[in-house]
Design brief:
Elements (H helix, E strand, L loop, with lengths): L13 H7 L2 H4 L3 H17 L5 H12 L15 H13 L12 H37 L4 E6 L2 E7 H26 L18 H7 L9 H6 L2 H27 L7 E2 L18 H24 L13 H24 L2 E2 L1 H7 L7 H11 L4 H13 L8 H4 L4 H7 L8 H30 L1 H17 L1
Helix pairs in contact: 3-4, 3-6, 3-19, 4-5, 4-19, 6-7, 6-12, 6-18, 7-10, 7-18, 10-11, 10-12, 11-12, 14-15
């Protein structure tokens, strides 16, 4: 007989039970749910809300559970009922105290946040590795000239380093966004129960501390009803994947014969079943496609929560698969993109040939005419433009030779954030120092999150030992 349905409701047909069950996705939060139940039981014991002997029996049962061996039955509906059922089987009637002053509503919200914070920290770590790979490659390519493009047309001379740093800076902002989301995720809903708290005294702040949260959500309805943290997490993943897609699009273009700026390693390409000469950039293509999938999940997530009445609704359960899949795809894509960047080979001969186009320095010449010859810039702009149209832009005059030299053009661009070696060296050093500090922060957070099950088990064992002695 179902713990929840009892004799009050008839058993559901298996087809309907499967349709509404979250058994498939809940496997991911089993460990968190066990930790939450231990923390809650310790709180009930501390407040004297349940008999100590019953509480200790619940703790013993919870401590005996192995998250890897728990099979969530469809008939239980979800992991929360499965855990309560298993505890009741081991602890007898004492297991009936387990759900006092809590609900699946605050429990699932807490477990999701515990899973999300760990996943976000791991994504941040992968971001650091990719940024570091871009910085390493940029440092090696500071003297490699290439055209900068607008509208996919050659625009101005720059360096490979400058372009790679543009991608690194975009991903560094994603890193900042990830930490912002992580801060909002790491707030504890426990104690909110179904949404209006409980008549039983519960120390929410102490439970939050035991579970390694930074604080509690201040409104109990909001604590169980909101899934803005899910939207935030999928959004930041969408931003990361979008930036990865842009990077991959560049690599796909650059690896074509038309550009021939870069060679992808053999492990990141495939070939044709019919055309033996083909080196197809399949890895960046798949990352590009997965970016669209993640953005699709963001739209799906917003569509689910849109116009829901504030309180718990089972619609929210459908967000879980979207969230978990987003985490997996993003983390895997970042890892593979890092390997892709590390093994890139830039083709200097093709890059040099592409930067010999004097029109790349047309802006330099217009600026030189404006400053040196005191010609209004717009007049100089049209003069240079007409010279290009009529094929008169040549570097055979001593006074224009220096102006139309792409290497000198790049080094003159000492603008902060620009392509000169001085500027790219500063960018590389600044970003490298920041990533080093951020990685240390991430390792500290992951250590704290990963130690929750062990620390909470130790506290529960201490309570059991004190009772038995």
């Amino acid at each position: 007989m179902s713990i929840l349905r009892g004799k009050r409701l008839k058993d559901q047909p298996l087809e309907i039970a499967k349709f509404t069950s979250s058994a498939n996705t809940d496997q991911r939060i089993v460990e968190h749910v066990i930790s939450i139940n231990i923390a809650h039981t310790l709180s009930l014991l501390r407040e004297g809300a349940i008999p100590r002997s019953d509480g200790v029996k619940c703790l013993k049962a919870l401590l005996s559970l192995d998250p890897q061996k728990i099979d969530i039955a469809v008939s239980d509906e979800d992991v929360h009922v499965t855990i309560e059922r298993l505890v009741s089987e081991l602890a007898g009637p004492s297991g009936g105290f387990l759900n006092l002053a809590k609900s699946r509503n605050d429990q699932v919200a807490t477990a999701l946040r515990m899973e999300a914070r760990r996943a976000l920290a791991n994504i941040a770590l992968e971001l650091c590795d990719l940024i570091s790979a871009l910085l390493t490659k940029a440092k090696a390519e500071q003297n490699s000239l290439m055209p900068y493009y607008t509208h996919l047309q050659r625009a101005q001379p720059t360096t490979v380093a400058h372009v790679l740093l543009a991608h690194a800076h975009a991903l560094e902002r994603d890193l900042e966004r990830t930490f912002f989301v992580l801060k909002n995720v790491n707030l504890c809903p426990m104690g909110a129960a179904a949404g209006c708290g409980s008549t039983i005294k519960i120390d929410r702040k102490r439970i939050a501390k035991i579970l390694a949260f930074d604080g509690v959500l201040q409104n109990t309805i909001d604590a169980v009803a909101t899934r803005d943290f899910v939207l935030d997490a999928i959004f930041v993943a969408s931003s990361i994947m979008s930036n990865l897609s842009v990077l991959c699009e560049h690599l796909i273009l650059w690896s074509t014969k038309e550009f021939n700026f870069v060679r992808l390693s053999d492990e990141h390409v495939s070939t044709s079943s019919a055309m033996p000469h083909k080196r197809n950039p399949v890895v960046p293509e798949i990352i590009r496609a997965k970016s669209s999938q993640v953005v699709g999940k963001l739209i799906a997530a917003f569509s689910i929560v849109n116009a829901l009445p504030y309180g718990y609704n089972l619609d929210l359960q459908e967000l879980n698969a979207l969230l978990f899949d987003t985490f997996d795809v993003t983390q895997q894509s970042l890892k593979i993109a890092t390997q892709l960047v590390q093994k890139l080979e830039f083709l200097k001969e093709s890059l040099d040939r592409a930067t010999k186009d004097h029109s790349l320095c047309s802006t330099d010449l217009a600026e030189w005419l404006c400053v040196e010859k005191k010609i209004p810039y717009r007049e100089a702009y049209h003069y240079v433009g007409d010279a290009i149209v009529h094929g008169d832009l040549k570097a055979d005059k001593a006074q224009t030779l220096s102006v139309l030299d792409p290497q000198k053009s790049v080094q003159k661009r000492a603008t902060e954030g620009g392509p000169s070696k001085l500027s790219t060296t500063f960018q590389i050093r600044a970003l490298s120092a920041k990533i080093f500090k951020v990685k240390r922060r991430i390792f500290v957070k992951l250590k704290i999150f990963d130690e929750v099950p062990l620390k909470i088990s130790q506290e529960a064992k201490k309570e059991v030992m004190n009772f038995d002695s």
